Every structure is written in C-alpha cells, then in structure tokens.
Amino acid sequence: MAIVPMTTKMTSGLLAPLLAVCTHIKAQHYWRQCRRQYTFQPIYRTCGALLALELLTAVSHPSAPDKRLSPEHYFAALDVRKRLQIIQEQLELLQYWQPLLTRHGLMVSVNIDGIALQALQQHGALQRQIAGMPYLRFELVEHAGMALNGPLQQIAGAERLWLDDFGSGLANFSAVSTWRYQYIKVARELFTLLKQTEDGVQLLVTLIKMMNQHSEGVIVEGVETEQEWLLVQRSGALAAQGYFLSRPAHFDTLQTLPTRFSMPAA
C-alpha cells in the first residue's frame, strides 16, 4: 500500500535537482536577453560646484522595455567574462566624452563588484585603457572588497577607489577601517533614516566627521529636497547626489550640464 507514495517521493527527489537546473538556465537566458542603457547623475560639492558624475546602468527586458529591472540582480546573474565586456563598453562610452570631462576636470565613477575588479587585474587591454583615463573612479561596496583574493593595496589604482553605500549593510565600519578610500558615499537608506530626528542628525554629523578622517571626503546620496540639501551643507560632507540636485540624464545632454548647482527659484 505504501509503494506508490514512496515511488512518488523518490521521483520528486530525483526531479528536484533537474528542475533547479532548468530554472537556473531559464533565468540566465532571461538576463542575457536584457538590454542596457547608460545615463549619468552629477555629484555636486556642498558649495555648489560640480565634482563628478556617476555612470548609471538602466536594465530592461525586450518583453517589457519600459519596466526597469534591478542592475544589482542583472550583474549578479552574469558571469565575470560578460561583466568585463560591459566594463569595456562603459569605458568606451566615457572615452567618447573624454575631451569634455578633461576640460572641466570631472571625475566619473563606475560601479564594480569585487570579482570583476579582481579579474580586471589580469586583463591587460582593459588595464591599458584605464591607464589613459585619469578621471575614472570605481565604486566598491564592502562585500565586493571581501571577494578579493588579496588586499586592496595589490589592486592597480586602489588609491582612487570609492566606497559605495556606507550604511547599507554591505559597507560599514570594517570597510572604512581596512582601506583609505578616496571618497566614501553614505547610502540613501542611512541618510533617510538619520535625517528624521535631531539625534539622528547628530549621529550623521558624527559619522561624517569620522569618515572624513578615513578618506578625502564624504558624498551623501539620496538628497531629494531643499531641506535635505541644506542639512548636508552643514553636516561636514564634501558633496551630495540626488534628485533635488539632478535626476539621471542621458549623455547627449552632458554638454549643457550646469557646472554649478543653483537653488531652484521659489
């Protein structure tokens, strides 16, 4: 009487790994079909001067081109070879705009994960390309640094690395203490949390003071209102980024980008 249920259970157990493989293959196929579109978002010093641009990757699938997908999930689904191809694609885009970037003395940050950063060290062609782009900066999160096989000082150009998303759960005090990053970016989620109370604001100021001691400056992400901009200006941070200052824009608008942020007229 128990033979049929037992057989069904055994069959299910045998099929489970196969179904998992099929699901993985289907997901990989989905992500490989996705398309990329590049935009930038400016980063302004608290004095209003333009400091840098962040290159952003918008991801969509042909079945729903107007629906934006998570860039983090997209890159996590790609193998390292494909990630390096995308980095090369991003570098070629920046090189097209290199005369303008150089003329205005702007830095451009590009997000990278630890595995791709490690593989980049063995890619001679990309290393030579990067050597001719002194304005290029890579943004790294703590879990990416932990993925490296060796210390950050063995990474070419490590002194120009930025720490991204401090306070997101991936980048925290251990990341700050292990390496002197050029700039540290405070995650939008942390800024949103701390700005809500006076005690939170005081903690933000204290954190920024501490991070200033371990870097050349702090950039606060997620500034979306005039009040938040004024708060960042008196916090001790070097610069800010967010929708109040500028929404992401296409590169064909780069020539008309204001080099100084002016408060919108009331």
Walk me through this protein's architecture:
By secondary structure, the chain is of the alpha/beta class. The protein folds into two domains: 33 residues; 221 residues, Alpha-Beta Barrel (TIM Barrel), CATH 3.20.20.450. It is built from eleven helices and ten strands. Strands 1-2-4-5-6-7-8-9 form an eight-stranded mixed barrel, surrounded by four helices. Helix 3 crosses helix 5. The longest helix is centred in the N-terminal third of the chain and has 31 residues. The chain starts with a helix and ends in a 16-residue tail after the last strand. The mean pLDDT is 88.
Class inferred from helices and paired strands: alpha/beta
Count of discrete alpha- or pi-helical segments spanning 4 or more residues: 11
Give, in order, the helices and strands: HEEEHHHEHHEHEHEHHEHEE
Number of domains: 2
Spatial strand order of the main sheet: 1-2-4-5-6-7-8-9
Rg (CA only): 22 Å
Based on DSSP secondary structure assignment, what is the total number of beta strands? Answer: 10
If you consult CATH, what is the topology of the largest domain? Answer: TIM Barrel
Q: Kindly estimate the percentage of residues that lie in beta strands according to DSSP.
A: 15-25%
The gross shape turns out to be globular
CATH architecture of the largest domain: Alpha-Beta Barrel
GO molecular function: cyclic-guanylate-specific phosphodiesterase activity
InterPro entries: Cyclic-di-GMP_PDE-like, EAL_dom, EAL_sf
Protein name: Diguanylate phosphodiesterase
Domain EAL: 18-262
